[in-house]
UniProtKB/TrEMBL annotation:
UniProt-listed Pfam families: Glyco_hydro_15 (PF00723), TREH_N (PF19291)
Keywords: Hydrolase
Boundaries of every Trehalase-like N-terminal domain copy: 3-141
Coiled-coil parts of chain: none
KW Hydrolase (keyword) present: yes
Protein name per UniProt: Glycoside hydrolase family 15 protein
InterPro entries hit by this protein: 6-hairpin_glycosidase_sf, 6hp_glycosidase-like_sf, GH15-like, Trehalase-like_N
SUPFAM superfamilies: Six-hairpin glycosidases
Molecular function GO terms recorded: hydrolase activity
The species this protein was found in: Sinomonas halotolerans
Residue ranges annotated for the GH15-like domain, each copy included: 213-577
Source taxon at top rank: Bacteria
């Protein structure tokens, strides 16, 4: 099975596919990110669905890249017979959902093979396949897939295969279109027309980016990746494109990230605004308001990409898991947790969009959320790491509750909005006093993970970023140094020590990439800029050949771990690049793009 970093992503802003260096699409959920997969080999075997196109006898491509500023992937294969290119993409969704693969001969005469195994419903439904007027029809239950190509297609062992040869200038297209099975088949889009349309879409999108500076390429790729994780129809942002890629190979820390976490999505907002993508920021704000509408007591920490509340967790027993990392889970029980930081992130994000977009149409909702937080902030919670052990008083959660009260009080004093200023100021001060009294080690020198604990937590690095204390406060400096000392692993950072058993889960995990980027930002904040730049550049080296990051990394094996591509890691990268280029911005001002 391919390594996680062997995968590139293509997508149509409603779902995404992972393309391996071996030319195989091993992951694709249709029609949406959180739908069942039709290619699920990533979490099992080729018989759980995959689509491979590659020169005969070649194991992996020689090189690959995204066409600049786009999500169109070009893989180059150099073989003894000559060279060929495969261009893979998904046109931004209109009525149909297409995956397009164009094989192009470059030199010599290259024999190519194609192997297609469609397996609906996460790899266990084999469709009924027929040929009609030269088009392959594959139907099962609610799903239908159609394949058009100029290449010969042959059915073999419940798969469809093809063999053909390309010479210089030859272009052999394959278009796979998904539709609900009850709808009539309609001719598939022309591959070349779709390519032009897709390139034009991404060119226009990228042309709006205001980012410049030495890390522009990395930042651009991260922004395109965040855009690829955005569910176009609603503006919701998926935490990652996959489920159950393990946080440790062979372990059981395997979760479904194909949902919209309020935390991840609001943090994504900052780099989008910084780079000039106000439309996306507005769409996200509107998604948020629809999703959280209703009783503030019912605020969830995550929703489906359409805003649905129920995302029940289940396991798929027929899938063995990525490199035997089981169970494979769909849905996520974290949706039912109490994570107090989310109030802070949501109210901070709405303050940000108020200032950046110049509109405020949700103040009543914000007031209702704050009123609720006022009643619950003293409760223990599961924290931002969604710990499944007993609830505790996480210092980061309380700090974010302070952020909520602070942004609401400032909505009144700085934006002239109406509200109980004295009450919210008093709540803000009370939370602050509580954190300073209980969230520090017994000597009062640095912050700790939770009240009464001696553990460190990388989330504490965010304390100055949200404005709770300034970077030059000795307690902040000591916390950054303690986190670095206690959580460093092979030059990067763990989010916390799993050995304490505090997260209620067996096993361990890799270094957490977002936290390692937070350390870059924190080091810039305390003036250790050279060290920050070195760490940042080491982190850039962990990206795969096309600039993608998953959630974690195993320094022993030199391999990426966890779901991919992950928004958390990519916005960490962008914020760190901004910090390195400009120094620290306050969290309530949209950071300016690197110049
Ligand atoms: O490892 C424990 C938890 O891992 C997931 O949560 C993590 O991913 C979320 C989405 O990126 C992020 O918001 C959160 O802060 C991370 O800890 C998983 O979804 C949880 O169910 C799991 O308990």
């Amino acid at each position: 099975m391919a390594r996680i970093e062997d995968y590139a992503v293509i997508g149509d802003l409603q779902t995404a596919a992972l393309v391996g260096m071996d030319g195989s699409i091993d992951w694709l959920c249709l029609p949406h990110f959180d739908s069942p997969s039709c290619f699920g080999a990533l979490l099992g075997t080729p018989d759980h669905g995959r689509w491979r196109i590659a020169p005969v006898g070649a194991a992996t491509c020689t090189s690959r890249r995204y066409l600049p500023g786009t999500l169109v992937l070009e893989s180059v294969w150099e073989t003894d017979d000559g060279a060929a290119r495969v261009v893979d993409f998904m046109p931004p969704r209109d009525s149909a959902c297409d995956v397009v693969r164009i094989v192009e001969g470059v030199s010599g005469s290259v024999p190519v093979e194609m192997d297609l195994a469609l397996r609906f419903d996460y790899g266990h439904v084999v469709p009924w396949v027929r040929r009609r007027e030269g088009v392959l029809h594959a139907v099962a239950g609610p799903d239908a897939a159609y394949v058009t190509t100029t290449a010969p297609l042959v059915g073999r062992d419940r798969r469809t295969v093809s063999a053909f040869t390309v010479g210089p200038g030859d272009r052999v297209p394959f278009v796979l279109t998904w539709r609900p099975s009850h709808e009539r088949w309609e001719p598939c889009a022309d591959a070349e027309v779709s390519l032009e349309r897709t390139l034009a879409y991404w060119d226009e999108w990228s042309s709006r980016c205001r980012v410049t500076g030495p890390y522009k390429d990395a930042v651009d790729r991260s922004l395109i990746t965040l855009k690829a994780l955005t569910f176009g129809p609603t503006g919701g942002i998926a935490a990652a494109a996959t489920t159950s890629l393990p946080e440790w190979l062979g372990g059981e820390r395997n979760w479904d990230y194909r949902y919209c976490w309020l935390r991840d999505a609001t943090l994504t907002l900052q780099p989008l605004l910084a780079a000039g993508y106000t439309e996306e920021a507005g769409a996200w704000r509107d998604w948020l308001l629809r999703a959280v509408a209703g009783d503030p007591a019912d605020l969830q920490i995550m929703y489906s990409l359409t805003g649905r509340r129920r995302v029940p967790e289940d396991t798929l027993h027929w899938l063995p898991g990525y490199e035997a990392s089981a169970p494979v889970r769909i849905g996520n029980a974290a949706a039912e947790q109490l994570q107090l930081d989310v109030w802070g992130e949501v109210l901070d994000a709405l303050a940000l969009t108020r200032n950046a977009l110049g509109t405020e149409d949700s103040w009543n909702l914000q007031c209702a959320l704050m009123d609720h937080l006022e009643r619950v902030w003293r409760q223990p919670d599961n924290g931002l790491w969604e710990m499944r052990g007993p609830r505790r008083h996480f210092t980061h959660s309380k700090v974010m509750a302070w952020v909520a009260a602070d942004r609401m009080a400032r909505g009144i004093t700085e934006s002239g909005l109406e509200g109980p200023l004295e009450r919210w100021t008093a709540v803000r001060d009370e939370i602050r006093a509580d954190v300073l009294a209980h969230g520090m080690d017994p000597t009062g020198s640095h912050f700790v993970q939770s009240y009464g604990s001696s553990e460190l937590d990388a989330a504490l690095l965010l304390i100055p970023r949200v404005g709770f204390l300034p970077y030059d406060d000795p307690r902040v400096v000591a916390t950054i140094e303690a986190v670095q000392r206690e959580l460093a692993a092979d030059g990067f950072l763990l989010r916390y020590r799993t050995e304490s058993g505090a997260d209620g889960l067996p096993g361990t995990e890799g270094v957490f990439l977002a936290c390692s980027f937070w350390l870059v930002t924190a080091l810039v904040g305390i003036g250790r800029r050279d060290e920050a730049r070195r760490l940042f550049e080491d982190l850039l080296e962990l990206r795969n050949d096309v600039g993608l990051l998953s959630e974690e990394y195993d320094p022993r094996l030199g391999r990426q771990l966890g779901n991919t591509p992950q928004a958390f890691s990519h916005f960490g990268l962008i914020n760190a690049a901004v910090a390195l280029e400009q120094g620290m911005g306050r969290s309530d001002e949209p950071p300016r793009p690197p110049s």
